[in-house]
Amino acid sequence: MTNTKHVVIVHGTWGSGSFWVEARAAFEERGFVVHTPTLRHHELPLLAGSTQVATVSLTDYTDDLVELCESLDSPPLLVGASLGGLLVQLVAARTPHVGVVAACPAPAAGIFNLYPSMLRLFARHFAQPRPWAKPLFPEWEGWEWGCANTQPPEVARDMFAELVCESGRAYCEMALPWLDRRKAARVNFDAVKGPVLVVGGELDRVVVPAIGRATAKKYANATYIEIPASDHMVLFGAALPTTMGHIDRWMESNKIAARETSAEV
């Protein structure tokens, strides 16, 4: 039996695996072998990737992540933020894992999602014809107001410059699950056997804290914590040490420990 402890960290909407510089370092300091996959077509520049990513399903993303997890020599800790927070739950229902950390998770099917701030951010996309066939472009006003609303302006600008397009189909699967015959956003909560930590940001506007609290209530073994004065970026910048402190205590209470020496992949 291998002693290696893996963590798979999954980025959110418009992101890529390269976003996880700080979180990668934090988990490596704790002795994990860190994997930061980039979701399908998110490696492409914004315009080049827009047509490729437009019709990708949540199921496509999940299939790719399950394949990665099952290639590892031991079940990983699954960590995801925003869209990634939903994806790690979908993955956890399908493959062995030691635990799940869902940071500001996008809402699974069955969780109320029609909050005013979220409608303000995404209504324009859904108002156009056939939104499931069109890419979701990042917009500066929405990013600054809804996602990075407590970040220093220069940090918010630097992060925005790295964003790429997101799948309109995946967003329709999340926002309009009753129209999705494949039920791509439906999590089999009972199949998630490991402990779950859900992290919310007190000032998050793109995934309001109520969604995190509702998500935690779906699990038999879940803990919900909220980062005071934090926006959506609970795994970045000034909020990261506080979030990692909560993760440390949760891992200790659930006996999730990495080996003493760190490694990089």
Automatic annotation (TrEMBL):
Organism: Hoyosella subflava (strain DSM 45089 / JCM 17490 / NBRC 109087 / DQS3-9A1)
Listed PANTHER family: HYDROLASE ALPHA/BETA FOLD FAMILY (PTHR43194), PEROXISOMAL MEMBRANE PROTEIN LPX1 (PTHR43194:SF2)
Residues in AB hydrolase-1 domain copies: 7-236
GO molecular function annotation: catalytic activity
Pfam family, one: Abhydrolase_6
Top-level taxon of the source organism: Bacteria
Identification of the protein by name: Lysophospholipase
InterPro entries, A to Z: AB_hydrolase_1 (IPR000073), AB_hydrolase_fold (IPR029058), Carboxylesterase_BioH (IPR050228)
